[in-house]
Amino acid sequence: MRKIKTTYILLTCLGLLTASLGFSADVDVIAAGLKGTDAENASFSFTPEGYITIMFGATGAFPARTAGTVLADGGVFSGDYTAAGIHKVGFRIRSELQVDGPVVASVVFKSGSGRIWINRNVEVSNQAGLWVANNIEFTRAAGWERDGPGNPDVLWDIDIKDVVNIGIRLAQVGSQAQSYSIGTFVLLDSSGTVVGAAGLMPSRVMDFFATVYGISDINDITDELKDKDSDSDGMSDWLELMAGTDPEDSNSIFVAKIVDYAADGITVSWPCVSDGVYKIMRREGFGSDFGVITLGLEPTLSDIANGKMEHKDSFAPGRGPYMYKIVKQ
Questions:
Q1: Bridge-partner residues for 261, per DSSP?
Q2: Mean of the pLDDT values across residues 222-248?
Q3: For residue 158, pLDDT beyond 90
Q4: Tens-digit pLDDT profile for residues 259-287
Q5: Fewer beta carbons under 10 A from the terminal one: N or C of the chain?
Q6: What do you get for the CA distance between the two ends of the chain, in Å?
Q7: What pTM was computed for the model?
């Protein structure tokens, strides 16, 4: 049996990602401490955008299998997930290089008992630069497994109430160089709201509060500061930072606009950021609920350069009126 060389990186997390006004978790991350050493064929780094990246170097003619794990522990990431109402873990991941074949990735957590649980239902594209959002539920039916004796259902109920740390594990398969970046990593309740005051904080949030208020600790950002509206555009500084708009520019707002109305459809435009993944929701008139019409939209290089995205919603002539909502996933 081939041995798997494994190395870990410990991410001590700072802040909170919340959602409102139709957008949610962002992807830039910063960490209070980055601990661990590069080992064997795996190494770790922060990209200029703030992502945590695991890199596997190319090997010789024989296939290699090296694994690296990013661990988030402390704060809400440790403890009784059942009592805290934690329903699932949400994160995004992308391959920085084109990969020949499937990517091997999993979510792992260790309990106070020392038992380790693994969920292999992590989706990662082998196409370079494509972010994939994942939401893994904390139920046995969601695919959590472990090796060893004992009734897994009974042990699961025990261990989910005593989580020590949790993370994402990636393995190099084959001999080609591989590199993967991890963005948002947050715990969510059953409604999809971020749980607790910990998570991966968008770097632009801390940059803003450090520059404007001299604050370098997420715990020093009060609700009063979050609710400030520096440019008086009706959207708080906190929400603008989450959306990727400029809290000091009243012309920079997260608002969708209809830019074209034709016989075969409506074209909607909205401001975007390079790390954004968006979905479009629509309802017909005021008497219906919003429904998703498309999701997983990512900006192109042209979109990023222009600072906006567009999408045409094709529909049968004579219907409507339509109302749209853009959600930053």
A1: 266
A2: 83
A3: yes
A4: 888 878 888 888 887 667 788 888 877 77
A5: N
A6: 41
A7: 0.55
Give CA–CA dist 21/126, Å, rounded: 32
List the single range of 76-80, 118-122, 137-141 with lowest mean pLDDT. 76-80
The structure tokens 């064997």 sit at: 40
What are residue 66's phi and psi, to 5 degrees?
-115, 140
H/E stretch holding 164 reads strand 163-171
Cβ neighbours for 279, distance < 8 A, ≥ 6 positions apart = 292, 294, 295, 296, 297, 326, 327, 329
For residue 36, the SS3 value is: coil
Taking residue 208's Cβ as centre, other Cβ atoms within 10 Å add up to 21
Nearest to 186 by CA among 166, 171, 172: 166
Burial of 277 (0-12, 13-18, 19+ CB in 10 A): buried
DSSP string for 220-284: G--HHHHH--TT-SSS-HHHHHHHT--TT-TT-----EEEEEETTEEEEEEE--TT--EEEEEEE
In terms of Cα–Cα distance, which of 184, 207, 196, 199 is closest to 133? 184
208, 241 in Cβ contact below 8 A?
yes
Residue whose tokens read 């555009």: 233
Neighbours of 322 (CB within 10 A): 17
User: Could you tell me the domains of the chain?
Assistant: 5-201 (2.60.120.260), 204-243 (no CATH), 257-328 (2.60.40)
Count of Cβ atoms closer than 10 Å to residue 153 Cβ: 8
Tokens of 277: 């993944």
85 Cβ contact list (under 8 Å, min separation 6):
189, 190, 195
Distance between CA atoms of 296 and 294, rounded to whole angstroms? 7
Helices and strands, number each (H, E), in the chain: 5, 18
192 pLDDT tier (thresholds 50, 70, 90): confident
